[in-house]
Amino acid sequence: MEINKPVITIILFIINLVLIFLFVGPEYRELLDSRVILAQKQAEYISRSDYQKKIAEILGDIEARQNILKKVDSALPSDFYFGNTVYFLQAKAVESGLDVKSITFSETTQIKYQPILEGRADQEIKGINFILNLSGKYQGLKNFLFSLEKSARLFEIDNISFASSGRGNLQNQSEEYNFKLGVRMYTY
Fold first, then answer.
1. Helix H or strand E segment including 11
2. Are strands 155-164 and 125-136 parallel, antiparallel or unpaired?
3. Chain centre to alpha carbon of residue 99
4. What is the pLDDT of residues 130-159, one digit of tens each?
5. Distance (Å, rounded) from C-alpha 25 to C-alpha 12?
6. DSSP label at 22?
7. Could you read off the pLDDT of 6-65 as tens digits, one per residue?
8. Inter-residue contact 135 to 122 (CB < 8 Å)
9. pTM for the structure as a whole
10. Bridge partners for 186 per DSSP
11. At how many degrees (to 10) do helices 25-64 and 66-75 cross?
């Protein structure tokens, strides 16, 4: 029996093609898929690394500006206590030479704002109104308003009305007045 070399060569070539198609082809596709997945993972790693670097820079910036943030927090406190605010207003009035007749809480107003960070839309800035009845000299009122302006807290004077109390001497400019101030303080 004689072997036909061209036929055997063709048969072996076809068998090789089938074996390559069955065994090597899927492995090659897996290798290509693995390369694509590896490239995606590397891109994800690089983006996460850049993100973490940015977060570290921002955290360092926040830590460097801690004093400024404390001032902002005291200007717009998140935990509001009437007692602290009333005491502050009384102390500043007495320092300015005014007598405090009464401090009354008026109303709270909600102020809508566009939140800077997403997920904080539930917080609103609240304006808390006080009405202060004071008596004293005009210079004392000036000093009181100046001390409110200098304070770290955010106060806004809505209105001022005054009337003569009938005490004092007009010629010496030492006449005392009754003042009524509408003061708004903000919190969130």
1. helix 5-19
2. unpaired
3. 38
4. 889 999 998 999 999 999 888 877 788 888
5. 18
6. I
7. 888 999 899 988 888 888 888 888 999 999 999 999 999 999 999 999 999 999 998 888
8. no
9. 0.56
10. 127
11. 70
CA dihedral 137, 143, 147, 150 (to 10 degrees): 150
Closest by alpha carbon to 180, among 123, 100, 64? 100
* Token reading at 91: 């102390």
Let me know if 128 is exposed, middle or buried by CB neighbors in 10 A (0-12, 13-18, 19+).
middle
Find out whether 80 and 129 touch, Cβ atoms under 8 Å: no
Residue type, 21: F
For residue 99, list its beta bridge partners: 135
How many residues are listed for the chain in this entry? 188
Hey, is 175 helix, strand or coil?
Answer: coil
How far CA 74 is from CA of 34, 167, 187, in Å, comes to 55, 39, 10
Phi, psi of 144 (to 5 degrees): -65, -45
**Distance (Å, rounded) from C-alpha 148 to C-alpha 96?**
11
Distance CA 141, CA 81 (A): 25
Name the nearest CA neighbour of 94 among 157, 152, 136, 129: 136
Tokens 């089938």 correspond to: 18
DSSP label at 122? Answer: T
